[in-house]
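Session log. Operator J.P. requested a structure for one protein chain; no other inputs attached. Running the standard single-chain path with token output.
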Amino acid sequence: MKAMIFSAGMGTRFKPWTDKHPKALAMVNGRSLLQRNVEYLQQYGIKELVVNVHHFADQIIESIGKHNGWGSHIQISDETYELLETGGGLLHAQPLFNPGETFLTCNADFLTDLNIDHLLERHRKEKALVSFAVSNRRSSRNLLFDDHDRLCGWQNTSTGQEIIAIPGENLQPKAYSCVVAFEYDIFRLMREKGFSGKFSIIDVYLALAPEQLIIGHDHSGDKLVDVGKPESVEIAEALFK
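Structure written below.
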């Protein structure tokens, strides 16, 4: 199985570090966020990886080379010409994945101890196109699910904006944890829906939800830190030694 670690972002919330470095190389207890995610995936036997790069791409490539991929085989998806966001970045990396195979993605700036085996077991049991980790934590932006954990919509509680893909009553909001299982067919479906260039993977989920099974796997109670701001490092260091 292959996995992709999204590492291309500008890290604007993580200044001043990101004025001179990519956020993926920010350190938590002596190990970079990227290294920690590489080693996290290794715990589940996943050593064939794709890493996308844009902001200070040379530093990420140099770090991967210097450390021999921390024991994994890492291919680079180059976005130095344009930052493509999560959806565009995934579509751009299609040639690096194996046709017909399930694969995973995660974000370099999220740390978690979610059990990937449990996520994949649920994904296969449900025969879903996409299955992603979610939890009951505070977030201004939530995905909305029915009683069977099927994705039905999205909301921004700060602005009141809401997108409903599948109408229903008593939809439950849950926060996205950025660890995702995909079937390879996602690439064909993205293109059929007209996605190209720069776009968010959340837009893809909402566009496909009425026709495809996209589910949330609740892992509330697991360790999880969005290391999006410098002050998050202290929280991460307390949880991830």
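Operator note: The chain has seven helices and 14 strands.
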